[in-house]
Design a protein that fits this description.
Largest sheet: none
CATH class: Mainly Alpha
Bound molecules: MU-OXO-diiron
Structural class: mainly alpha
Number of domains: 1
CATH topology: Ferritin
Helix content: 55-70%
Radius of gyration: 18 Å
Number of helices: 5
């Protein structure tokens, strides 16, 4: 049995995490359109991570006997002016998600929901990495400035991010890679 306030906040967080996946998938499309396939690859791995985040909340609610009620996803951005802008958006979005996780923890503590704390503690830590990853790319792009070579090198580096084993977001999983 789960407290109604905690349930509502976690149920909404499933939407926030799926929306994150949707936002980053939109960026995958943008980066491919700009021939920045490394950045597109990095974001594909991120789509995997966000889907897992949603499922962690989904399964937590299921395991506590609650009935998940999926909410509508909002229309998301599909166009950016330059390669920096999606990364700035991603960093801002991760800060938004961090605030949501902190608010959720506050609700859980107020409602004495000790069962939720280990899951929420995992997310509090995860958000450090989530913010840092996207902020770091913003700062690296600032360093690169107008250098095409620098952008190319950074794109190559971001393309080395590794998919978690068995990820269905890895094109190799659906035979698009030769
Ligand atoms: Fe699920 Fe990027 O926060």
């Amino acid at each position: 049995m789960i407290n109604k306030k905690v349930f509502d906040a976690m149920n909404e967080q499933i939407k926030n995490e799926l929306e994150s996946a949707y936002i980053y998938l939109s960026m995958v499309g943008y980066f491919h359109s700009q021939n920045l396939d490394g950045m597109a690859h990095w974001m594909r791995v991120q789509v995997h991570e966000e889907t897992i985040h949603a499922m962690k909340f989904f399964d937590h609610l299921i395991s506590r006997g609650a009935s998940v009620t999926l909410l509508n996803l909002k229309q998301i951005k599909t166009k950016w002016k330059n390669p920096m802008e999606p990364w700035q958006d991603a960093y801002a979005h991760e800060q938004f998600i961090t605030a949501k996780i902190h608010a959720l923890l506050k609700i859980a503590r107020k409602e004495n929901d000790y069962t939720a704390e280990p899951l929420l503690a995992w997310f509090v830590n995860e958000q450090i990495e989530e913010e840092n990853n996207t902020d770091k790319v913003c700062r690296q792009l600032e360093m690169v400035g107008d250098s095409k070579e620098g952008l190319f090198m950074l794109d190559r580096e971001l393309g080395t991010r590794v998919y978690p084993a068995g990820s269905c977001f890895d094109p190799a999983a659906y035979n698009l890679v030769q």
